[in-house]
Design a protein that fits this description.
The chain is an alpha/beta fold and 729 residues long.
């Protein structure tokens, strides 16, 4: 609707919300299906204006306003105004809210001691005699022309850290700068005085920062460039914990600790002893025999749903579980049981895992419903008295939070993706007989243990977590949080280690990988990272996913063309070929922008493979909008497109709109686009006929054991006869 003629229009958030309302000043306002998509100017006014400005609203306007009013406050558990179900919002998801992790990840707790879960920062530094030299070096580091650790070894004036690449180590955040006396409790960083004097430490600790940031501070020693490498967070303080109690001993659930969610001034103590008698408690309690072998044989099984990010998270969780002495369950493993009072009967049955981990996906409703059907048999095992630990991780866990425990009380641990490499810490509370929910926003910490890779040839490496976009259909910002880029040095170290282990190919992962480095201070570029990683000796192939047309720079295309190890493959979701639908989706790009990227790829790498994602049946999509999508497919002729019919998701504006399409229309358009997709995929592969290409052999063909499976640089899967033991890698 054209509302520009109105001098001022106010949309109340909720009659019961006394915080504030949004007043839309004169400007361009685009409404689709009653849902606000974009405004030029937004001013926050006191809620006293509510009585003066209360225009009539349609049902979906009221629903969207109520939803946005609650998701403006990370940490709330809210009721979805459309479905009526509770959702777990821990990240800022409304347009206009901050996406700076330094600002909203504050780790404040309402506990009596007010002790922050953020414990320490791990730092590197380079010491200079002059500020000018430090500034020149910072520019080089920002452009990734120089490596921080190498520069420290080459030019740092700090003799104590120079040979260690400038490593300062961990700096404790508990240091009290209000007292001068050298008390160990007030100054736990006194041992760093000769390296990083008190004045420099004070400035560092008072400056909001995150891993990857480089700060410039001064002290009596000179000018320091200080790099934040990692953070140490007590994840147990960030979790909601309640004690499991037998029904005959308790009539109600007792909350043991809920430092972040409930905000209770009075909090009981978490149960903290291995009294539950479970096998998990035995392993975590150190049940060892004299020769060092774990006396309790525990097994785990991880079921992974969804994207490559989930696959990478599962590998990290496996590494953590194996570090605890819990091993993967073998496919053909059996267990022997004896029964009978007078005549013993021996029965052999398939062994079931002691620890179940379901790494979930919530990108579509179908994937979410699979979670509950999968949990059923394992929940029954627990009800039948079996000693089994049930863990729900991933996006559904982050989305649902505590409500999962109410729906499936047998669950032991609910944890969001940000805790994938801290599952061992959370399991300590589980072993003590508690149920745990860990979904609070947190900085991503570097892995304490090494992931258990599913492949011996190809490895996933996360470079950026989360997404700052606000696409109106997408749940990712709610479940994976804001963007957090890893330091360049950490990424290089992980890739170098993989190459040393014999890995030939690495895929850099990110929900919005082109945004890599924009959350850092100073900002970095993904194209620079591509060149650095691509030049690591011994690496043969480099891939990356997923790109966003809004942020994918032409420099990334040039980096792929200029880096010999980079595969000629681009995955660039365009989602729709209609500018009207792209605008409604909040994508921030047009079809013309997307086609300009494709043109750049075709000019620099004429034979490159281009794949994409697309959604059909988005609210308000007309037949012409759909034909525009087919037209862009005809123009590009993708090597493959991941297609999906629109599925309303919780905490997304599009889910509240009234102009939803019927399922019959969605399925018809999905069928038609899949037919075109198959036609183009066949044509693109047909051009390979007669060529001799390199194939990186990965695994055995599971359907034909005498064959092996590998991929070309274009990402095409190839099967051919061969021995996997001879050809792998």
């Amino acid at each position: 609707h054209d509302m520009t003629h109105l001098p001022q229009t106010s949309f109340p958030l909720s009659p019961s919300d006394n915080r504030h309302i949004f007043a839309l000043e004169r400007g361009t306002i685009n409404m689709l299906g009653g849902a606000l998509l974009a405004v030029q100017c937004c001013v926050i006014l006191p809620s006293l204006a509510f009585q003066q400005h209360a225009p009539m609203q349609r049902k979906d306007d009221r629903a969207l306003s109520a939803l946005q009013s609650t998701i403006d406050k990370p940490g709330d558990v809210i009721t979805n105004p459309i479905t009526g179900s509770e959702t777990n919002v821990k990240f800022p998801t409304a347009r206009g809210t901050t996406t700076d992790a330094r600002k909203f990840i504050t780790y404040s707790t309402p506990s009596d001691d007010n002790e922050s879960p953020l414990l320490a920062l791990r730092l590197n530094h380079i010491l200079f005699a002059s500020e000018e030299l430090a500034k020149q070096t910072l520019v080089k580091l920002t452009k990734a022309e120089w490596n921080f650790e190498s520069m420290a070894e080459a030019v740092s004036n700090c003799a104590e850290t120079r040979d260690e690449g400038g490593a300062v180590g961990w700096i404790n955040l508990a240091e009290d700068f209000d007292f001068d006396e050298p008390s160990e409790s007030r100054n736990p960083n006194d041992h760093l005085e000769l390296i990083l004097p008190r004045s420099a430490r004070k400035e560092i600790l008072e400056t909001p920062s995150k891993p990857g940031d480089i700060l410039m501070v001064q002290s009596g020693r000179g000018v320091h460039l200080v790099q934040v490498v990692d953070v140490m967070v007590d994840v147990r303080k960030l979790s909601y914990v309640k004690e499991r109690r037998k029904k005959k001993k308790a009539k109600e659930t007792i909350v043991i600790q809920n430092e972040m969610e409930m905000g209770s001034k009075k909090s009981a103590q978490r149960k903290d002893s291995h009294e539950s008698g479970t096998n998990l408690a035995g392993v975590l309690g150190g049940a060892l025999v004299e020769d060092g072998v774990v006396d309790v044989d525990l097994t785990y099984k991880i079921e992974t749903m969804g994207c490559q990010m989930n696959q990478a998270d599962s590998e990290r969780m496996e590494g953590q579980l194996m570090s605890l002495g819990i091993r993967p369950l073998l496919e053909d493993e059996t267990v022997t049981k004896s029964s009978g009072l007078f005549e013993e009967t021996v029965k052999e049955s398939k062994r079931k895992p002691d620890v179940i981990v379901l790494n979930t996906c919530s990108i579509r409703d179908h994937a979410e419903q699979k979670v509950y059907s999968y949990l059923g048999p394992h929940a029954k095992r627990k009800r039948d008295g079996e000693d089994v630990t049930i863990i729900v991780a991933g996006c559904v866990a982050q989305q649902e939070g505590q409500s999962l425990l109410r729906r499936v009380p047998e669950i032991d641990l609910v944890m969001g993706p940000q805790y994938a490499n801290r599952i061992s810490d959370l399991l300590e509370d589980v072993a003590n007989g508690n149920q745990v929910v860990a979904t609070e926003a947190s900085h991503i910490m570097e892995d304490a243990t090494k992931p258990r890779r599913q492949s011996q040839v190809c490895g996933w490496v996360n470079v950026i977590y989360g997404c700052n976009e606000r696409c109106t259909y997408c749940i990712v910002p709610t479940t994976r949080g804001v963007e957090q880029s890893r330091p360049v040095e950490s990424i290089v170290e992980e890739v170098t280690e993989l190459v040393g282990q014999g890995f030939k190919e690495v895929t850099l992962l990110g929900q919005n990988i082109d945004a890599y480095g924009r959350d850092m201070k100073p900002k970095r570029k993904f194209s620079d990272l591509m060149r650095i990683v691509g030049s690591i000796p011994g690496l043969e192939r480099l891939r990356f996913v997923t790109s966003h047309p809004r942020y994918m720079s032409l420099g990334v295309v040039d980096a792929v063309a200029d880096t010999p190890t980079a595969c000629e493959y681009f995955h660039i979701p365009f989602q729709s070929g209609s500018n009207a639908i792209l605008n409604a989706m909040g994508r921030g790009h047009t079809r013309e922008k997307f086609l300009s990227i494709v043109e750049r790829v075709r000019n620099r790498l004429p034979d490159a493979a281009i794949t994409a994602d697309v959604i059909v049946g988005f609210p308000g999509e007309t037949e012409q909008d759909f034909l525009d999508t087919l037209d862009i497919m005809e123009q590009v002729k993708f090597d493959s497109v991941n297609t999906a019919a629109y599925s309303p998701r919780p905490n997304t504006p599009a889910a509240t709109w009234e102009n939803q399409l019927d399922e019959e229309t969605k399925q018809d358009r999905l069928r038609r686009i899949n037919e075109l997709n198959l036609k183009h995929a066949t044509e693109r592969r047909a051009r390979m006929m007669g060529r001799v290409v390199k194939v990186l052999v990965e695994e055995r063909n599971v359907k034909v054991p005498t064959q092996v499976m590998g991929r070309t640089t274009h990402g095409y899967i190839v099967y051919f006869d061969g021995d996997i033991d001879e050809l792998r890698g």
